[in-house]
Design the sequence.
């Protein structure tokens, strides 16, 4: 399986999200992070991600006669490069977007199922804004978003940090108006 195929599955993508920031987790620990997914399915997808080079075994230890493995995400392998994105068909994009939406819905439902879920206190947001942008303004906005988000991607888990799923979604949904429509 290639990287795109590996990441284009909601459960595998959720596992990748859980493994970010240098975390080392066992499959059992991953099961607690995606409680709405069966253990068998988590084990199967961890195996696929491991065989595909997205996850690597970081350590092994004996636990009651069995070998327990802790995995680490290979951040360099968990990326879809620009050339791959350019090569995707419209149907491929449709499928990838559906996976992204499925992950968002699953993660949000898992959050709401937590005993302590409090969207107001947790500053949960799911706003949408329609903005008119020139090509230059679009590039500027993307650069500003990257500048704001990129440094935080290096944050590691600590006792005062909760993991948030941030999913910027950006696409044109209306053609530029003709000059007569703006006058």
Sequence:
């Amino acid at each position: 399986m290639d990287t795109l195929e590996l990441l284009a599955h909601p459960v595998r993508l959720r596992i990748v999200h859980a493994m970010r920031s240098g975390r080392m987790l066992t499959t059992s620990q991953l099961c607690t992070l995606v409680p709405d997914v069966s253990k068998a399915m988590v084990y199967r997808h961890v195996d696929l991600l491991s065989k595909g080079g997205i996850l690597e075994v970081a350590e092994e230890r004996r636990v009651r006669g069995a070998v327990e493995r802790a995995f680490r995400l290979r951040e360099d392998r968990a990326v879809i490069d620009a050339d791959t994105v350019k090569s995707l068909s419209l149907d491929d994009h449709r499928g990838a977007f559906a996976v992204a939406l499925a992950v968002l819905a699953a993660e949000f439902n898992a959050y709401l199922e937590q005993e302590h879920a409090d969207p107001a206190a947790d500053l949960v947001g799911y706003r949408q804004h329609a903005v008119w942008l020139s090509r230059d303004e679009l590039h500027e906005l993307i650069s500003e978003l990257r500048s704001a988000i990129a440094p935080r991607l290096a944050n590691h888990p600590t006792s005062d940090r909760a993991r948030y799923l941030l999913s910027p979604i950006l696409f044109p949904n209306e053609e530029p108006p003709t000059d007569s429509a703006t006058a």
Observations:
- The chain has a mean pLDDT of 92.
- The radius of gyration is 19 Å.
